Amino acid sequence: MESKINRYSKQLILINSLFIILWLGVSVFPFIWTFWGSFKVKADFFSRADWMFAVTGVNTLFETGDTSTVKAYVESWTEGEFWKATMNTAIITVSVVTISLFLGTLGAYALSRSTYKYTFWILIAALIFRAMPHITLVSGYLFPFFQLNVWGILPTTIIVLVAINQPFTLWLLYSFFKTVPKELDESALIDGCSYFQAFRYVIMPVMWPGVVTAGLFSMMLAYNDFTVTSLLLNQENYTMVPKINAYLGTIEHSGNYMWAVSSVVSATAPLFMIIMFFQRQLISGLTAGAVKG
Amino acid sequence: MPHKTFFWFFFPSGLAMLLFIGLPIISSFFQSLHIEPEQILMEVEKCDPFGCKTETKVDIEATSKLQEEQPLGRFNGLGTYGDRNHLAFDQIKEAWNNSASMSDFIDIILNLPFYKALLFTLTFCFAVTPPVVVLGFIVALSINTLTKSLKGPTIFGVILPMIVTPLIGSLVLFWMIDAKGILGATIQYLFDDPNLSLKSSSQLTWITLIIYGIWHNTPFAFVVFYAALQTVPQDPIEAAIIDGASRYERVRHIVIPHLYPVATFIILICLMDNFRVLEPIIGFAAEGVAQSLSWMIYNDLRSENKMLFGSAGATSMLTIIGVAFLLTPVLIRTWREFRTER
Question: Which of B24, B224, B265 sits opposite A137 (nearest CB)?
Answer without folding.
Answer: B24
